[in-house]
Design goal:
By secondary structure, the chain is an alpha/beta fold. The protein is built from 12 helices and 12 strands. The chain is elongated and about 60 Å long. It binds beta-D-glucopyranose and calcium ion.
């Protein structure tokens, strides 16, 4: 089954390549860890749009959250003749395999969103990473929550001068899960809040998992004992919001409100913020990252002086292999 669909994919790919003529003949092969991820959808759209603007071509595959499938896809993409890879690894610790494949084929590889360890990235001079600094998003998330708490001392429902919070975490081992969890709490502390995590749970970036967990916490802990929810991304924040709303929280009554913060600034989170259901988020700039990844891929294929090439496009390469796109706090006026 998989074999058949793969062959069909490759045929479609070859057809797509042969039907058009490309400016610099940039043929990008890309794998996304899981198409059903809301943030990665924004990322994909950004890459496709930029590829079109560049007059290049891109073929993007769904790795279905399975590293074995992704490794096969990389082989197939390489044998179909792509000249650069943009890879969103399923398991960032397994990036060595992909680097070795790219190295063997002598084509560059740009990793996105899931950062391979520096030791792995260093093993190939044509391996790059385009992303955003995870600790920055955690810090900004903690800061925007702290700003609200200072304006709203009534957050402290049990009057113990501490913030009892729930932490909803992304996939285990993801740099954004580790560092957002750490730096959001650090920023709270740095601004004088005394955070106390009453429960922390892994909801794998997923709205439904987060909603179910939050429902269970509300049952076991009691919503009156929860003073904030910090989620590593918007989807999980929205899951928490659903659970809160089902318990008559965050529906407009100021007595029944628990601040919920996320990261990404996905459209659905911005809508929830407009409705007053969610406090804030941090823009994870999918457009900027997708654009930079494609620009870098194209520059790498053209083989000129990458550093100045990329600089002229408004990006900077640091440590010879990183492009960092900044995060940005997003809040709405008070309702
Ligand atoms: C985003 C999450 C997304 C994850 C996928 C993170 O940077 O904030 O929403 O699920 O990347 O790897
Ligand atoms: Ca308290």
């Amino acid at each position: 089954m998989r074999k058949v669909s793969m062959t069909a994919l490759i045929l479609a790919l070859i057809l797509a390549f042969s039907q058009c003529s490309f400016a610099d003949d940039v043929k990008i092969g890309s794998c996304i860890y899981r198409f059903s991820d809301a943030f990665m959808l924004r990322f994909r759209n950004a890459m496709s749009a930029e590829t079109e603007r560049e007059g290049a071509s891109i073929f993007i595959l769904d790795s279905q959250n399975d590293q074995t499938i992704q490794d096969q896809q990389v082989d197939e993409l390489i044998s179909s003749g792509v000249n650069v890879l943009i890879i969103n690894p399923v398991d960032r610790m397994a990036a060595q395999n992909i680097i070795d494949k790219a190295k063997n084929a002598n084509i560059p590889v740009v990793f996105i969103n899931r950062e391979p360890p520096a030791e792995i990235l260093k093993t190939y001079d044509k391996a790059y990473y385009v992303g955003a600094k995870a600790e920055e998003s955690g810090t900004e998330q903690g800061e925007l929550l702290a700003a609200y708490l200072k304006e709203h001392p009534e957050y402290d429902k049990n009057n113990d001068k501490k913030l009892q919070f729930v932490m909803l975490m992304g996939e285990n081992g993801h740099q954004d899960m580790i560092l957002r969890s750490e730096y959001s709490v650090k920023a709270l502390k740095d601004s004088g809040i005394v955070p106390v995590q009453i429960v922390g749970a892994i909801a794998n970036w997923d709205k439904l998992q987060a909603m179910n967990m939050m429902n269970a916490f509300i049952m076991s802990i009691g919503s009156e004992n929860i003073e904030a929810v910090i989620a590593n991304n918007d989807e999980m924040a929205l899951g928490a919001v659903e659970a809160l709303k089902a318990n008559d929280y965050n529906k407009g009554n100021p007595e029944m409100y628990i601040p919920v913060v996320g990261v990404d600034a996905n459209a659905s989170a911005l809508d929830a913020m407009d409705r007053g259901e969610m406090l804030g988020t941090v823009l994870n700039d999918a457009d900027g990252q997708g654009k930079a990844a494609v620009k870098l891929a194209a520059a790498l294929v053209s083989g000129k002086d990458i550093k100045s090439d990329i600089k002229s496009l408004g990006y900077e390469i640091t440590d010879n292999r990183y492009i960092w796109i900044p995060y940005q706090k997003v809040t709405r006026g008070e309702k």
